[in-house]
Amino acid sequence: MNKKIVKALFSYAVSKEQIRPIMQGVHFEEDVCVASDTHVLVVYKASNPALAGKTKLEDGTDIDGKYPSFKRVIPKKAGTPVNYNWSQVYRAIKWFKKQEGCNPNDRLVVGNCHVSMATLLNALEVFNAAGDLGFMKVSTIDPGRPILLESEQFTAIVMSCQSEPEKVDLERQDCESVVVSYANLINTYAIESAKPKEAKVEMAWL
User: Fold this and answer.
1) Residue 75, CA distances (Å) to 67, 103, 150, 186 in order
2) Which of 13, 51, 163, 185 can bridge 35 by disulfide, Cβ–Cβ 3.0-4.6 Å?
3) In the predicted model, what is the mean pLDDT of residues 112-127?
4) What is d(CA 73, CA 70) in angstroms, rounded to the nearest whole number?
C-alpha cells in the first residue's frame, strides 16, 4: 500500500471532530482500509494484513472501539453515470473556494444531486493524491442517496444535500450559499482564471 495515499486519507477523509474518536482514524481490514467523517467515506483497496481489525491515528496510536459497518452504506451497484471532467472540477472548486464571498455551504449540481463543494473536494483530494482523477467514474441514484465514486484503487461515497433545482445558478445574495451547475462552474473558472493577474505595486500606499 502507498503511504502517500494513507496520508491523504488522514488529511481529507477522517473526522476532525473529537465527538466520535473512532472516526478520527483509518480503519484497516485484511484487504482494504477505510476513512470517513460521515460526509465522505473512502475505501482504499489495499491494506496491511498485520493491522487487520485495528483503527489507527496518523502517529500509529490505536483507537479503541468498534468501527462502524461501512459496507452497508455503499450502494451495491452504480446508478446513472455523471460524465464530468473531474480533473477540471477539482481545479475549478479549489479556485471557487478562494473567491470573495465564498460560503462553506456552497453546492455543486452532480447529475440529479446537489453536493457540498467542500465535501466533494475532500473526496477528490484523495483521488488526486493517487493520480486517479482522470480514471474516476461517478454515478448517482437519487437526490436522497450518496454519490458513488469509483476507480481502480478506491470506492468512495459523498453524501448529497437537499436538492433545490429552483436555486441553481442564482446570483449570491449577501453571504448566502449558492447552488452552481457544472457548466457554470467550469465556464466561470475557465474565463476568470485566464484573466491576467494585476501586478502588485510595492508600497502602493506611498
Assistant:
1) 19, 30, 11, 28
2) 13
3) 96
4) 6
C-alpha 193: how far from its chain's center? 22
d(CA 143, CA 159): 9
For residue 154, the cross-strand partners are 44
Closest CA to 179 of 116, 86, 120, 97: 116
Q: Which helix (H) or strand (E) holds 27?
A: strand 26-28
How far, in whole angstroms, is CA 188 from its chain's centroid? 21
CA 146: distance to chain centroid?
12
For 13-22, the pLDDT digits (tens) are 999 988 889 9
Report residue 59's pLDDT band, with 50, 70 and 90 as the boundaries: very high
| pTM of the predicted structure, to 2 decimals | 0.90
Q: Each residue of 66-99: pLDDT tens digit?
A: 999 999 999 988 899 999 999 999 999 999 999 9
Which domains are seen in the chain, by residue range? 3-73 (3.10.150.10), 80-138+160-194 (no CATH)
